[in-house]
Amino acid sequence: MNLKSIIEEIKNNKELPNLQFEIKERTENFTKHLFYTLFDKNTPVESSLKELQEEFEALADLVCWKPNTPCRNIWEEYLLKLPEILMKLNEDAKAIAYNDPAANSLEEVYLGYPGFYAIAIYRLSHELYKFGLPLVPRLMSECAHRITGTEINPGAQIGVPFFIDHATGVVIGETAVIKNNVKIYQGVTLGALYVDRKMRNTKRHPTIEENVTIYANATILGGDTTIGANSIIGGNVWLTKSVPANSMVSHTPQIKIKNTSNNG
């Protein structure tokens, strides 16, 4: 096979005419710019919002390839949501600083806590998801996933405040519902019992009621699974059934400790 035939073969196997990696790169830049605009003291708000509008419209032109999809018009409505999103995120940050004895300042939370960054990108992408903007919200969530190791689908519904400690390995599915004042730790999965395309429009992920704490590496699965308010879910717990309010659920492994020292 000569070079010309190789080139033609590659061209023929590029099956998706709208698959442009420029979309991913532009989304990453937009996400970073949006985060800086909301939080960074030295980023001018007025000029940045104008630039963000231009970046958003360029993105919209790339992702809204279906006819009669007015994606550009979303920006004005999204802009109105930004102050409310910022207020929610400030509440999230304060909750983290209040609950974590290792936090020395609010600035440390904003700058150094991967859980806060993951929550911030979730809240910013969730509103675009609600508007029905294709592809961009998911790519925004992947920005946070890559940086923090936390995957929060933009379709999830999450109350305020929300606290993710340590962050790495957390997975929150598209139809998960998390009420106010929930704390979760690294490695927690809020997932589906199984993957089936036919379940696309059904609730597949659990509901977590208010004031629940879920410790490291717990796995909670299923759309009918509800964790009742004020409950504590211990580390490494595996749940596929609902838990009533005010419960404490624990996993008790068998651990043996043997003294191997030789005393003669």
Describe this structure in words.
The protein is an alpha/beta fold. The chain has seven helices and 14 strands. It has helices spanning 3-12, 21-39, 45-63, 74-99, 106-112, 114-131, 136-148; strands at residues 151-152, 157-158, 162-165, 171-172, 177-178, 182-185, 189-191, 207-208, 213-214, 219-221, 226-227, 232-233, 238-239, 248-249. The strands form three sheets. The chain has a five-stranded parallel sheet. A five-stranded parallel sheet has the order 3-6-9-12-14. The protein starts with a helix and ends in a 15-residue tail after the last strand. The model has no long low-confidence stretch (mean pLDDT 94).
Task: Give a summary of the structure in a few sentences.
This protein is an alpha/beta fold and 264 residues long.
Topology:
Blueprint: H1 3-12, H2 21-39, H3 45-63, H4 74-99, H5 106-112, H6 114-131, H7 136-148, E1 151-152, E2 157-158, E3 162-165, E4 171-172, E5 177-178, E6 182-185, E7 189-191, E8 207-208, E9 213-214, E10 219-221, E11 226-227, E12 232-233, E13 238-239, E14 248-249
Parallel strand pairs: 1-4, 2-5, 3-6, 4-7, 5-8, 6-9, 7-10, 8-11, 9-12, 10-13, 12-14
Helix pairs in contact: 2-3, 2-7, 4-6, 6-7
